[in-house]
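Quick one: structure for this chain?
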Amino acid sequence: MKIPAALALVASASAFTARVPRSTIGPRSSRTQLRMAEGQLDVSSYMSPGAPPAGTEDFIMQQTMVRVKDPKKSLDFYCNVLGFKLIHYSEFPEWKFNVYFVAPASTVASTPEGRWTHCMRTPGCIELTYNYGSESEEGNVYNTGNADTTGTQDGEKVRGGFGHIGITVPNVYKACERFHSLGVEFHKSPNAGGMKGLAFIKDPDGYLVEVLPQGPMVAEPVDCLGVAAEGGEGYQDNSK
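Got it. Here's what it folds into:
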């Protein structure tokens, strides 16, 4: 399956490494050492060419699963706003949950068996899991992992491990103009904060979706929310 170049899922770790400022890269000419809080981590062995470990040659990074409150709203967002397709779904009424796999795909198989096979061989799917009845609950249902109080007993924010999923687009500013016109909520517009040229939007459950360029990160003077590239509040850690 050919994934459209205009929109593809990206791994968070790769996206972060791509935008690490030069000042944080170690002294080696290969730039394979990332500076950490204490010492340095030599990552060169993880980037070495050649075959993967024996027995892993055909492994695929196939999915990330998130629980959603209302599957209709989530499918509308991922399919009509981000341009993904629903490539497979399964309903389990005996266990009171359904799963919906969305991905930046160009085709969808015509049979349940074909959809399953296609899905299991497609990298970068998102599995939207819907537990029956959650759409009738008041307010947010699931903690997003980013300084969120949802589901906590004491009302304090949780420093969760999950951060976001990410997409890449040809032009972040044009994509965000479209998102803004569709009423999508922004966590960070392209010019807000310390990092310019990237954005974070929210899906219906509040999960963050990072929007990155498919080329150099270049700031434009004013973004879709009228924020100027000059200035800004500085970098913000979403986990706190």
